[in-house]
Design brief:
By secondary structure, the protein is mainly alpha-helical. It is 75% helix and 4% strand. The protein has four helices and two strands, in the order αβααβα. The protein has a two-stranded antiparallel sheet with strand order 1-2. The protein starts with a helix and ends with a helix.
Length: 103
């Protein structure tokens, strides 16, 4: 396998991983967002987080809600959740890249 083919295969693998993660997040959000508004209050956000991780402590859920509720209106949008998730994925990628260059 040539280097460009290997790089393409790795990029496709990473893309599929992200797609699977986002599909799961979208499904969890939609199951809680009964009004299809793209917005969750704190109760809905807790339910959303429980669907993703039953073991996530309530204090962490509440802290994340406050962080994502940038306007302080008691609501979190799907776009804020997606942006947070994409940043977390980028941080993971950055950490993996640093580990590779350190070896």
């Amino acid at each position: 396998m040539s280097l460009p083919s290997l790089i393409d295969a790795l990029l496709l693998y990473r893309l599929r991983q992200r797609e699977n993660a986002l599909t799961h997040v979208v499904a969890a959000f939609r199951s809680v967002d009964k009004e299809d508004s793209g917005v969750l209050d704190s109760r809905g956000f807790r339910s959303f987080c429980r669907r993703l991780n039953r073991d996530m402590p309530r204090t962490e859920v509440d802290e994340l809600f406050v962080e994502l509720d940038a306007g302080g209106h008691g609501r979190v949008t799907f776009s804020a959740i997606a942006a947070c998730l994409m940043q977390a994925l980028a941080d993971v990628d950055s950490g993996e890249q640093e580990a590779v260059t350190m070896q």
